[in-house]
Design brief:
- By secondary structure, the protein is mostly beta strands.
- The chain folds into 3 domains: 42-49 and 304-446, no CATH class; 61-94 and 125-275, Immunoglobulin-like (Sandwich), CATH 2.60.40; 455-642, Extracellular Endonuclease, Chain A (3-Layer(aba) Sandwich).
- The protein is 11% helix and 34% strand.
- It is built from 8 helices and 32 strands.
- It has helices spanning 80-83, 114-118, 312-324, 342-350, 416-433, 455-458, 519-528, 574-584; strands at residues 42-47, 60-63, 71-74, 88-94, 130-134, 137-150, 156-169, 176-190, 194-203, 208-211, 218-221, 225-233, 241-244, 246-253, 264-267, 272-275, 290-292, 299-303, 335-336, 363-368, 384-390, 396-402, 410-415, 440-446, 465-467, 470-479, 492-502, 535-539, 559-563, 599-607, 618-626, 632-642.
- Strands 2, 3, 4, 5, 6, 7, 8, 10 and 12 form a 9-stranded antiparallel sheet that branches. A 6-stranded antiparallel sheet has the order 25-26-27-30-31-32. The protein has a 5-stranded mixed sheet with strand order 1-22-21-23-20.
- A hairpin with a 5-residue loop joins strand 21 (384-390) and strand 22.
- The protein is flat, with a radius of gyration of 29 Å.
């Protein structure tokens, strides 16, 4: 099993990613004398390492609720709003409306394994106004706030709509983390053109906010996005844990209005826990504090590959017990961690164990349920006695020496090295998933001999080209003319979608060049609007992540016309989010977040007005961190970047 020691949380990065850490433990085999006569073993069947995938870890969701009712305040005397007849502005939270016609959801990513798909970690996969959780991440999107201007007759004369989303990843090691918050003004009607926004986060006892977005008095216009980080900190004492919740308040007014009370507020319905209590008190090493969403069931992973890569026969024996015994501990029913009386539970199950050195060299007792759980410690006389043997076909065959599939527990005859490896993997899993005293958990025992890879690295899709230790795929669609403003221009193609599977340090791509589709149209638009602002050929997959831009290397399929200062660069722009992926696609020692077999699934989809458009009106960008253990979290969710000049929201190149 590959140690995930490299995984760390990097506070301050844009959105959510997960991590794990490692730990070790050892235990001696139970002593016993081999009996003079042995019962004949009877074969219980075989376990195919590819036949059982363990316990999937589906994402958890909770509905998001906001403070009900309407909050109103006067518009400032002499303000533009007051001159337009508005005497007050009122704020309500509303159900999320359907996406504007110009916005399209991204096409599906490459086929994911069932567990990975369920645990995708992407807020885009959850319904609006829904909180999404996994063990180390939480996010929400589609929180909508409506601001309404009203005249003296209480008649509506203008509205402004704000969409709020946030996302965070909790550190498996460390007790400081960032939550990325985004507020977008998605609509403006009538007398409302600009709003003033202030945001105030908080957390309950056991946690404190050390940094908030500096939005006091910040104004926002339609299609503008405000981004910011909230930084939290918790300091649990050694050997303790603290639970707390986060809450949020949004102040929305007309520019210049004074307001002292929040007019939109909401809370995270799930508790967050930070602890300094993972390791056993008998461990000499200092414990590492960390944080989780405790209501999300952790899954501890184990492999039955031969040692030292896996836990060999011990894991195979546990997998047999999970699959055949009535309770299915760790699979059908969760186990519960218990630090105390481990020696007592071990003695109750393995104290009468008789080693079979004639069958297993250096034989030891592999008890299941584990002695480090409350479910362990069953009288060994009630246990099934099993002997896992490695098959030449690559799986394990398990012989039953005593008892049977109706037994409440199992004692496996396994080499001591395998038992110790299993205990080390279990301790490592406790640390990785921050399983503390009385935490319930499940155990996923994998028998795959292949080194695990991120989902997008397992199979490159048809039409993709290799890029570093990943791939890039550019998809095109036909257009009747490569330039609409040149009627005699030939038919051609336009960039339709770009996907990339990015491993550590993706290679550099190539600079953009040439008369790409829509290039003459963009120049004609600039001339018609009497501006000298610079045009650019925007890479969908940026060249810093391996994207091509040359005339003869596939570049035209990866380029679209855009404003240099606007969609290409600026805040926010494509470059804003490209930089996030660029920083993340590094080893941890270099400031990144990827392990050797992890990846970032990166996707950009141009949004065209119609089938003969040659220039998109916007692009939708998303990136997802995919771990080799099958889990994934959003690096950033669907982001809609308009093809307008600078941050004015004007002169959209889309045709």
């Amino acid at each position: 099993m590959i140690s995930p020691r490299w995984r760390r949380i990097l506070p301050g990065l844009l959105l959510a990613w997960s991590l794990t850490a490692t730990g070790t433990a050892t235990a001696a085999a139970a002593d016993g004398q081999a009996p003079t006569a042995q019962a004949s073993p009877r074969k219980a069947g075989s376990v195919d390492p590819n036949g059982l995938t363990g316990v999937p870890a589906p994402g958890k969701t909770r509905p998001a609720t906001m403070t009900p009712g309407e909050s109103c305040g006067p518009t400032p005397a002499g303000s533009r709003e007051r001159k337009a007849g508005a005497v007050k502005g009122c704020v309500t939270s509303i159900a999320t409306p359907a996406a504007p016609a110009g916005r399209k959801s991204l096409a599906a990513a490459p086929q994911a394994a069932p567990a990975a798909a369920a645990d995708s970690g992407s807020c885009a996969l959850a319904a609006p106004r829904t909180w999404y959780y996994n063990r180390f991440a939480y996010c929400v999107h589609g929180l909508t706030v409506l601001y309404t201007l009203k005249d003296s007759n209480d008649k509506e004369i203008g509205t402004g709509t704000l969409d709020v989303s946030s996302s965070a990843v909790l550190p498996a090691k460390g007790t400081t983390w960032s939550e990325f918050v985004r507020v977008t003004m998605t609509g403006a009607t009538g007398a409302v053109t600009t709003l003033s926004v202030r945001f105030r986060p908080a957390c309950s006892a056991g946690c404190k906010v050390t940094k908030s977005p500096r939005w006091t008095g910040k104004t926002i216009i339609k299609d503008q996005v405000l981004n910011g980080d909230v930084v939290y900190e918790s300091t649990p004492a050694p050997g303790t844990k603290v639970d707390f919740t986060t809450s949020y308040e949004l102040f929305v007014t007309s520019p210049g209005a004074q307001i002292t009370d929040p007019n939109a507020s909401w809370s995270n319905p799930e508790k967050i826990r930070c602890d300094d209590a993972v390791r056993d008190t008998t461990t000499s090493a200092a414990p590492d504090p960390g944080c989780v969403v405790p209501s999300y069931m952790p899954v501890v992973k184990m492999s039955d590959q031969p040692t030292p890569q896996g836990a060999g026969a011990a894991a195979a024996g546990y997998l047999w017990a999970q699959s055949n015994l009535p309770d299915g501990w760790g699979r059908a029913k969760p186990l519960t961690r218990a630090k105390g009386d481990v020696a007592g539970r071990t003695a109750r199950t393995c104290g009468t164990f008789q080693a079979r050195t004639d069958l297993v060299s250096n034989d030891s007792c592999g008890e299941f349920p584990f002695a480090v759980t409350r479910e362990g410690g069953t009288d060994g006389a009630q246990c099934a006695e099993i002997l896992p043997r490695h098959s030449t076909r690559g799986g394990w065959v398990t012989d039953v020496l005593d008892g049977g599939t109706s037994s409440p527990c199992a004692r496996a005859h396994v080499p001591l090295a395998d038992k110790q490896a299993a205990e080390a993997q279990l301790a490592e899993g406790f640390e990785n998933q921050r399983v503390v005293e009385d935490d319930q958990f499940k155990v996923e025992i994998s028998g795959s001999i292949a080194e695990p890879q991120a989902v997008c690295r397992q199979n490159a899709p048809a039409g993709s080209v290799p890029s570093g230790n990943g791939w890039i795929k550019n998809t095109t669609a036909p257009v009747p003319h490569v330039n609409k403003t040149v009627p005699l221009s030939p038919a051609g193609t336009r960039a339709e979608r770009a996907q990339a599977c990015l491993g550590i340090a993706p290679p550099k791509g190539t600079e953009a060049e040439g008369d790409i589709t829509g290039w003459a149209d963009a120049d004609a638009f600039r001339t018609a609007n009497s501006t000298t602002a610079g045009l650019a050929r925007c890479h969908l997959i940026p060249n810093v992540l391996g994207g091509k831009g040359g005339k003869n290397d596939g570049g035209p399929d990866n380029l679209v016309p855009c404003w240099q200062s606007g969609m290409n660069t600026g805040t926010p722009s494509m470059r804003t989010y490209e930089a996030v992926a660029q920083r993340a696609a590094r080893e941890v020692k270099d400031g990144g977040i990827l392990g050797p077999n992890d990846a970032i699934f990166y996707q950009v989809t141009p949004d065209y007005l119609n089938s003969d458009s040659t220039i998109p009106q916007a692009v939708t960008m998303s990136a997802r961190v995919e771990r080799s253990d099958g889990t994934s979290q959003p690096l950033f969710p669907d982001v809609y970047i308009t093809n307008t000049q600078k941050n004015t929201g004007q002169l959209n190149l889309g045709n």
